[in-house]
Specification:
Structural class: alpha+beta
Helix content: 25-40%
Radius of gyration: 18 Å
Number of helices: 3
Order of helices and strands: HEEEHEEH
Number of strands: 5
Strand content: 25-35%
């Protein structure tokens, strides 16, 4: 039996955990984060949740147009979370799957840094001070 794109991806990136045979969906733990891999029709879709803070969406969306010129990953919002996704043909070669995975993880790193930076900005605000005579 032929392996699914998820099984081939796991093998290509030398993922250490076992992926069940004929998997159409899997969650990969990479660098302490979860990457979802799903086969939808004839596409392999990778996705990662960036934040559950919907109020971050407008600021993050401001980066999206410029990032579309640099990467294939797409910023999206759904089910109360901001996430990133990228897809490729489920029939892609192992080399193409490795490139997909590497470019997706690079994109995730960049977007997570923006989310972390926005949280840091919120924490560095000085509290309002009152001077009493």
């Amino acid at each position: 039996m032929a392996k699914t794109a998820i099984e081939r991806l796991a093998k290509a990136i030398e993922y250490p955990d076992r992926i069940p045979e004929r998997s159409l969906m899997a969650v990969l733990r990479v660098d302490g984060a979860e990457v979802s891999a799903a086969i939808t029709g004839d596409r392999l879709v990778l996705s990662q949740r960036l934040t559950g803070e919907a109020d971050k969406l407008p600021a993050l969306a401001g980066y999206a147009a410029g990032r579309m010129l640099r990467e294939e990953a797409v910023l999206a919002y759904g089910d109360g979370a901001v996430f990133l996704w990228q897809d490729a043909s489920a029939d892609a070669s192992e080399q193409a799957l490795v490139r997909l995975f590497e470019s997706f993880m690079d994109s995730c790193d960049w977007w997570r840094a923006r989310v972390d930076a926005s949280r840091a900005e919120e924490k560095t605000e000085f509290p309002e001070m009152m001077i009493r005579p």
